[in-house]
Amino acid sequence: MKVDRPADAAAPGRAPAAARQRPPDAHLAILTLSGIPLVDALRVSRDTLANACLRHHLGEVEEAVTSGVSLHRALADTERFSPTLLHMVASGESSGRLGEMLERVAATQESAFSRRVDMALALFEPLIILAMGGVVLTIVLAILLPIMSLNSAMAL
Fold first, then answer.
1. Which of 10, 68, 90, 93 has its CA 20 to 30 A from that of 74?
2. Tell me, what CATH number does 50's domain have?
3. CA-based radius of gyration for the chain
């Protein structure tokens, strides 16, 4: 079952998706490693989210897990979570090490998000340099053009 997303959740690109996805992974990892039951951990994670769309989907996951569906299947049914998360959750459920796998996913997605941000900033720096060069060129031309026109007027 596919739910329509609100307009504010339709952010394009992979980095925004990673930003929306990271907090529930990290929260679930911490809570499950602390020994909190999965349904309670899902509820707490859902309540801490600012993104209404993700909060809605995590609520669906919570309801599905409460009714007996595995966490992996519930996450997959929302069609909102990365394949990496789904595979790691499935592996964690089968091995009995769900908290550790969630922690790994959270760390992996955090580092991937940091790399994307660093790459975007690295691409943005040359644009800033070009813009500053344009501003300097404008200032230099604003100073030199009147001087040149005065010189040409005096030469006549």
1. 10
2. 1.20.81.30
3. 26
